[in-house]
## 1
Amino acid sequence: MSSLVKLTIDGRPVEAPAGTLVIEAARGVGIEIPGFCYYPGLALQGACRLCLVEVERAPRLQTSCTLPVAEGMVVRTATEKVRQARRAVLELLLTNHPLDCPVCDKGGECELQDTTFAHGPGLGRFSEMKRHVDERRWSEVVYYDRPRCILCFRCVRICDQGMGVRALGIVDRGGHSEIAPNRGDRLECDECGMCIDICPVGALTSRMYRYQTRPWEMRHVGTICAHCGDGCTTTLGVYHNQIMRGNNRDRSGLNGEFLCLKGRYAADFVDHPARLTSPLLRAGGGLEPATWAQAIAAVAAGLRAAQARGAPIGIIGSNHTTNEENYCLQKLAREGLGTPHLDHHRTGDVAGLLRALAGRSGALATVEDLYTSRAVLVVGRDLAQQHPLLSFRIRLNYHHHGARVYVVTPGPVREDRYAARSVRVAPGHELEGVESLMHDLAGEQELVVLFGDAIRGEAVARLVALCDSLGIQVKYVCLVDYSNSRGSSDMGLLPSLGPGYRSVAQAGMTLEEMLACEDLGALWVVGANPLKERRLAARSAFVVVQELFLTETAQAADVVLPAASAYEKTGTVTNTCGQVQPLVRALAKPGTKPDLEIFRLIALELGLDFEPTVPEAVWQGIARAVPGPCAGTVRSAGDTLFISGTLGRYSRTLQAVAEAPGGLYRG
Amino acid sequence: MLYNEPSPLEVKVLTRRFGLPGGPTLATYLATDGFAGFRKALQLKPEEIIEQVKISNLRGRGGAGFPMGLKWGFVPRGSDRPRYIVANADEGEPGTCKDRLLMEHDPHQLLEGMLIAARAVDARAGYIYVRGEYRYIIEILDRAIEECRAAGYLGRDILGSGFDFEVYTHSGAGSYECGEESALLESLEGKRGVPRIRPPFPAVAGLYRCPTVLNNVESYSAVPAILRDGGAAFAALGTPRDGGTRLFCVSGHVNRPGVYELPVGFNLLRLLNEVAGGIRGGRKLKAVVPGGSSCPVLKASECDLSLDFDTLAKAGSMLGSAGVIVIDEDTCMARVAARVIRFYAHESCGWCIPCREGTAWLAKLLLRLHEGGGRRGDLDLAVEIARNMLGRTFCPLGDAAAMPTIAFLEKFRDEFEAHLDGGQCLFEKQPAGVEA
Amino acid sequence: MTFSPELEARLAKLLASYPAGQERSALVPMLLYAQDEVGRITPELVAEVARRLRLQPAQVEEVASYYSMLRQRAAGKHHIQICTNISCLLMGGGELFEHACRCLGIGNKEVTADGKFSIEEVECLGACSWAPALQVNYDYHHGVTPEKFDQLLEVLRQAE
């Protein structure tokens, strides 16, 4: 329980908890003190000297970013002495800074521009030769312009403390100091781009965005990233209906400071040339473009024909579609078409976890819990590769709060570097690894447990029982991949469970069973690619595919319907922690339709009742869910930072930057 | 063998063993009251040891002049973290060459001083951070440490007291900034020599974030005498607020440059004329830099003063490392100023904006100025740049660069002005070496 | 990468100087001692030191590039470091440096074609009262006039 300290800032009485930095205490009352090297959450520096303030009885100006508040302290941030100091520091900084504004990407959103306008001298008196070093390209994504660099070292710290990668360092000395990448002339890293966005000036820029446009020309849309299950908000910069960049400019998302390369750069799948923009009908040996009317009619005809034969209709849902779309698809299937055969590529045993928890409240962790819990246990997953936001939050929890991290994985993971204990296990033996930690875990006051597909079925119940035996508060995250895997489960795209995990009257075939069923009359695939590695047994089944690209499954279809991506529609998605967030439409893709719209057209054509919303009751049901057992396969996508299913295959950036996973763990 | 003829005016406390026959062996050391101070310290409580150092009025000999007893007193009692004793043998301040002699000619004295410090704060290990260029000094120190260990004056259960203390040498690799105490600790931990945010200070969180006593070589070297003869005796040799003797390094245009141990408070003109033999070649004195290049220069007319910290501070300069650099009338002050600021620009660690950019700007400006490319207004600009650095940098290197620059520009303005607008340097280039 | 037995012994003693878990403290001295034998800080040396101290090569590079005695390019067999800082400047160190460059026909931080000599203009060596001063590798020479310098060069050349 920290005590409150009373001090005075610019004549105003201020109260702040002991340990608060003066710069933060000032911000708390609306007094903005400029600074480049200070960055909340990162190690303190006191390097740029821009935040100097007057403190009564101190002989010199003090850096407010390293000074904790003290009882009775009198601080002045706006005296002539302070103003002159800021002008002086800025003049000195600008001596070697090149006048690149006309060609620098950062222009218009540059902290140095803003600070100089607000606090700087109007004139620079430096008339010597400026230090110059050529720009460097450190990776497919990252460019470094040393002349623009103000050596604030934010990039070094975010890569080290934030990302745990430590790919950036400082070389040489004095005015010759430079930021250097870990492989001498190039970067071997996550390519997350955190360094680029945290750079206050245009020293670090992204190749994707370099010289493309100006910040004020773009419309900025904060929506949920279309890739993994963490649920980060990405702010898409849209210019003339094209996504120019993504960043974490809008920090209101649960990801705060964080965004990985998928959220930043891999929106480019949206305008890949291979994007489907017209319905396709099978004619002759191939697929021919058709109108929506023709295509929808063909779908309805194919489905009716299967129904007439009494042949089973299978529906495979998506890990990317919205909750509303998932709910409506299962309703259309069960009530509209009367088929119980519903499934999706399950990447984690969410149903198993909820069943094991048997309606307990407060047992599911949010992303924030990963930052505040005193202890975290990671089972069977390489978080830095597959859930980079979760990895980030846990890492900062360790740096800021000294959280104890426990790891049970088959191979080395980034968390090993700061884990209290790391246990290596053979795949399939994760629970034994957890058992070996019971003594350590029993000493904790609280715990968050994250587990992946290695723990499924009965193993989930055993894991929960093990954690119950600790006698402490435990919260869980069942890790699932893709932007709405959780929503697919929650909304009942499962053969034996409906929305809210309520048991259904009649259980249907699993995904594998549908593919193996030789009598299958029709297969309706929405935003999934089950035929990438598997075959459809029923050769004469009628296949409908709603997709963004001509995947292997689409190529085998009778009708292909071009769907809108997550960035082109509205609705809600649920992250791996169960947090529901809304999508905001960033742009329109002519020729495509949101899956929900396609369902509506098909339903209309079939003469069915259609209601495209998710009732309140369903949400409440999920909160109290006590699911029954669910057959079928649970298998993670096994993505890395550079792989993201179909979307990743069509992101030129991801293809370009792909580095060997685990290569960063060497040594 | 590097030493100069001693002066009869010297008061040889720290340097009394210099030049003894047989060289600096443990045997010689023991035969001349070696470890007598430590034996006394063993009879005292730690607080009493620190009290003697406080009474001695010994102020840090590295340059900052912080009272040593006070510093030792900051080490928290009853900390469960190990304590360390670190000796700063980085000696990078231009004009300073005394620690080198102390380590070369009386290494055991330094070790005894560190040992007493260890006893005062209950430390078990110490390091001597030696600048990389002093390789032969490291070898001398290592031999002395081995001698002491073999004879039971270092290591375990020293002199049967139950007290353990180990000392190790550690080499730098070329960085003036590593003479700054927190940058030294960073370097000792295997990192770039960039200073730390203070507070906390080394006494509380130093080496490996453990409480650390960090002092200059000469400071430790005075401690055996302080314990042996008592702090009051040492204090009495100097002035009331600045006790003991100091090793003054006299360099530049004198007849007898060298290192001389004199009481604190000795008069600077007496030092130049009576100890160092006066200005060479019968020339006139123009200026003296009294405490190493970081201290503002004194004009000849300002040199009649007592060499102690307070007097020099009042005179607008510093006693610093007691590196007394003597400049005669035939020297171009603009050239000296340009070379001095170039040093700071080269040694700036680069961490903070005012020092990194300020020293670079001043170095370029003063060079251009000395070579005739200066314009009216450049002089005031240079002073303003330097003033803009003062008190605003992360560590004192910024001040060490700014204050001398301002002093040169203000006190010898006419010499700078002569270079303006294509003006040529009025002075002969310096002929190399000592001349007849 | 293998070092001579003498260097290995020196490095072993160095590593034993620091408390357990603080091996990183050995980094700067290790680089300097290894450079004495290898000649310069090569990528191979960086990797070897990194391996021994369980650091990333990039971390070793960061540190190595900070210190002015650690060099990326090879020096001559006799690396002549001439101080031109204030005390030596006053006693003709600047002129001595120019003389030395003329004698050897090379400039600052350059090496003679036969690899025997290199010159570097350095900062204060701690020999101020005996200026002008220089170091040949680690050996000090004091009161060096141009004539004494010429003699020194002769001696070094003869010693081949």
## 2
Amino acid sequence: MKQYEPVIGMEIHVELATQSKMFCGCPADHFEKKPNTQTCPVCLAMPGGLPVPNKKAIEWAIKLGLALECEIPLFSKFDRKNYFYPDLPKGYQISQYDKPLAVHGKIDTKLGMVRIHRVHLEEDTGKLLHTTVEGKKVTLIDFNRSGVPLVEIVTEPDIHSGDHAKLFLKKLHQIIRYLGISSADMEKGSMRLEPNISVKPVGSKDLPNYKVEVKNINSFNFVKKAIEYEVIRHIALLEQGKTPVQETRGWMEGKNETISQRLKEEANDYRYFPEPDIPPMRFSSEFIEDIRKQIPELPEKVKNRLMKMYDINKSVAEILTQEKELGEYFEKTVSLSQISPSIIANVLVNQSVNIQQVKPEELIDLINKKQQEKQVDAGVVATAIEAVIAANAKAIEDYKKGKTAVLMFLVGMVKRELKGKGDAEKIKVLLEGKIHG
Amino acid sequence: MKLNSLTLKKAISKLQHKEISLSELVEEAIKEKNKELHIYLTLNNEAVRQASSQTEKQLEGIPIAVKDNFLTKGLRSTASSNVLKDFIPPFDATVVMRLKQAGGVVIGKTNLDAWAHGSSTETSAFGSTKNPRNKEYLPGGSSGGSAAAVAADLCIAAIGSETAGSIRQPASWCGVVGLKPTYGRVSRAGIVAMASSTDSPGPIGKTVEDCATLLNLIAGRDIYDATTSPQPVPDFTKQIQKGVKGIRIGICYTDHEKLKGSDAAKAVSEAGKIFERLGANIELVPVSENLQKGHIFDPNYAVAAYTVVQRSEVSSNLAGYNGIRYDYGRAFFGDEAKRRIMLGTFTLSKGYSDRYYITAQKVRSLYINNYRELFGTYDLLIAPTSPGYAQKLGATKDNPMYGELEDILLEPSTISGLPGISVPCYRDPKTNLYIGLNIMANYWQEEKIISAAYAFEQATQWNSWK
Amino acid sequence: MQPKTQITSEMVSHIAKLANISITNDEKAALTAGFNETMKVVDILFSVDVKGVTPTSQVTGLENVYREDTIDRKRVFTQDEALANAPRKHNGYFVVDQILEDD
């Protein structure tokens, strides 16, 4: 029986956290604002509304491209993508067609590299709300989101499994958060994903002759599930000698399956042409380098550096560098105290410290206090150990026979004697020493 | 005395000296021949009140007629289409804002070809405007209402817009002055977009100086229009009396087959002789089928290129009218709009875009190169604005390409973005219809065309041909 | 040199759909004829030698025109202004007949 392997590409849209919209001065933060209170002639597409591009959005898109190891062509422009939909007020979206801001990058993951085909800028549409008003089925439209800057990231079809997709997305998400350009929150919709899925016979050099796009996925876990569902579905069809229909499908969260959305009659003809209202962009290499300098140390690098500098292990370092703020907080705390980095790391990893509210100095105080509380006279410890050994002869026997788990029980007993004070690790070592003579 | 027959310059002076009052000026316009000529679609009932608060500013509350594709806050703006029949904009076009800041008052919104699609006002959803010089004839277009308002003395001065002739051609047909600035000189923000890459707002007035005065007030970079240039704005009236001594002028198109023996060709040749008497060097620039040094490229190809580019941009610019946010929806488009939207959709569509849209933009480059070469030799180029006189009412209806064909002599310069001014150069005493002289210069050289037009105006005293 | 395009009535139907414009059968016939008239004029484009010529989409020569990332309160509409001309509105929203799930 033929073996098949998945061939998956992803299209990701990220809302940039700029102050203002992509082509006008309306506020970009639209979360939970009253409908249609953040529009203007441009983003509401009134006659004569003309787009003027947001410099910061362009810089941030280039920044992302650089962080994804892309080439930044020195010439770029905007184009019109023409189609009709009620949430698209102009009847066209200003996007980028053949001269995007960034091309040919990559992200490495444990399960393999994923090449980035392109990164470009465009504007978001309004929001639709389907409901019933006075007994009639209607769709309500809010244009607060219309015109918000969106970065679109398109990968090559290098992803080969649901897990691989998840890993890739997590890395991408992390990089975006490190750059501080977006909240990239799937639930708020500031990060949206669409996998393009197909399968091909293992070993085949050709790309499959079809692909299925899946929409309506709002978590990394669901991406994995959707991919796995589709792969099974495609293989089943191929084994019947059929080719899966090239279409867009929607992920049905509750049912864990995809369903076909209304088949579009033919591939959309977007009639792209250069945006006549916006002069093109020509960047100097100095401009690009200035942006490159603004990129903070990225997660992979920070992780490796922390491991080396502070002698902490990989999984702890990974957690510490999950969010840029946590890693920075960790290093700040280390620099301000004498406490060993591994203790600080452990506290941050194992206890939920609210780093927004607890200043590094305060955390240092807390740790020191805890240490002190645990401080106890060596003689008192020795006495407690002897007392516990004396009172637990059977347990000692069991331990000597090989039941190593008993040791932790004994440590607990000693701590009880000491009323919680003392260092568990040290007590364990002392106990072992005492027991073995 | 007919107050609206004053030029802008005289009216400002008389107002300053309190010889006339604003309300007289405004009320006269409202009472007069508007119904008969069908010039204003909407009148500003607040005009007198607004004017009285503007007396300390440069324009002293002078009423200006504004083409109805310019958005005016609180005052209905329709682009002469049923789609926008009841649209009351919540903001002003930048040009309107600047006029108001200078003390101008919008007296009313003038008729145009719907969506500026045309050269006659016959595509207006609300009926054609009549040419004040002869009511059996058309005023031209698309700024037909604005040109007619000036010619009929229903305003002191007006504002229009040109995509390919829409200021100069109606100015020519109505026997008034129309100035199309360099593309990027005046902001398009708040104007119903037609062809984004050529739309140029500009003044229409009774004299060259009036147009130069208005241009001063509206020109200059606008933060709301990314295609406006940071090019410094001179005082366009300063050099107006410079004259044409030693200026090199090339005469174009009088040898074109379409104009052989026409009154337009004769009138422009005569104009050339006048410039010569005023001290300029005149030379015919022969038309050529191919791009050749010292020749002007046959304008027929510009018509083809312009038709494709304009209709492509139109198809996209009119895509937002979907009856959701402020309009009545696409079922209300007139026939001409439908034709243009659909043809433009076709020329951008898959499989045809390279062939039509890209080729048209390449041919456009050829015209730009042609002018670059010619303006290396000549300071100015002159030509007939229109191949002939105004046409009779009804003459242009239901012609699938009337607009673009009529503007054949203007499209090469508009697709290149060059400035030009049309000033009357001949009047037929039998019909009272006019021929217009189009004077063109290189980018940003409005001063040159203004001083040449002024010299011509002084020499011919065309304003006294009655 | 490319062969001249003949626009058929099927093409006109397709174009109308792309352009989101409804046309009647009578209009379709008139439009088809009109387009072919227009294309006769447009097709002269192909008798021009454009080898090696770059297309011009903007004549200004401007580049790098941006705005700073600041909020422009002056231009933001109030909810009332935004909805003032709306044919249908409800609780601050624009309203259309329900669109089938086609996101």
